[in-house]
């Protein structure tokens, strides 16, 4: 599926950063860059999840549930691996780099990502119900409501990411001024 397993991702990360990067901007910047890379992995995982769900719905009425269940399993593993790594980054930012502001942004993003995943799963079920019962307007309404909630959650994530970006760029500017 193009997503690295959690163990492989962690091993690559440890090799590229070193387990305990010493003080200095480069180690902190590396943590910030890794966080952005993990967010990109989440976006890709959601894209694959949506793509797989569309394919599953198109296999109606003889759904290929075995293949879809395997996709859900792989996506769940990917999200778990990403989440574990973000938790580690969050801890390192707070404890090693004394950046509770960035750590707090990550925590808020994690909360919204959990919400988004739950809403996405509910939306997929609602879409299937709406497909099977096109005459039932309540299923169509539920689908629309869940789409709106997913979009609002994405907006909230993007706002927090903007705050994270602002605070992490402020850190870079401060570090550059201190070196002058």
TrEMBL record:
Record keywords, A-Z: Coiled coil
Keyword Coiled coil carried by entry: yes
Domain of life: Eukaryota
Coiled-coil ranges per UniProt: 102-156
InterPro entries (alphabetical): REX1-B (IPR039491)
Protein name: Required for excision 1-B domain-containing protein
Source organism of the structure: Callorhinchus milii (Ghost shark)
């Amino acid at each position: 599926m193009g997503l690295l397993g959690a163990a492989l991702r962690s091993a690559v990360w440890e090799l590229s950063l070193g387990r305990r990067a010493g003080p200095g901007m480069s180690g902190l910047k590396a943590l910030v860059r890794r966080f952005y890379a993990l967010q990109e992995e989440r976006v890709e995982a959601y894209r694959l999840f949506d793509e797989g769900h569309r394919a599953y719905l198109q296999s109606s009425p003889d759904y290929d549930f075995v293949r879809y269940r395997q996709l859900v399993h792989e996506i769940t593993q990917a999200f778990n691996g990403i989440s574990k790594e973000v938790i580690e980054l969050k801890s390192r930012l707070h404890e090693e780099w004394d950046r509770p502001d960035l750590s707090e942004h990550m925590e808020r993003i994690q909360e919204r990502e959990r919400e988004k995943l739950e809403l996405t799963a509910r939306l997929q079920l609602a879409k299937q119900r709406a497909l099977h019962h096109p005459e039932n307007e309540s299923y169509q309404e539920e689908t629309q409501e869940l789409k709106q909630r997913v979009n609002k959650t994405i907006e909230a994530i993007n706002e927090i990411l903007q705050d994270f970006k602002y605070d992490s760029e402020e850190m870079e500017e401060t570090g550059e001024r201190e070196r002058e």
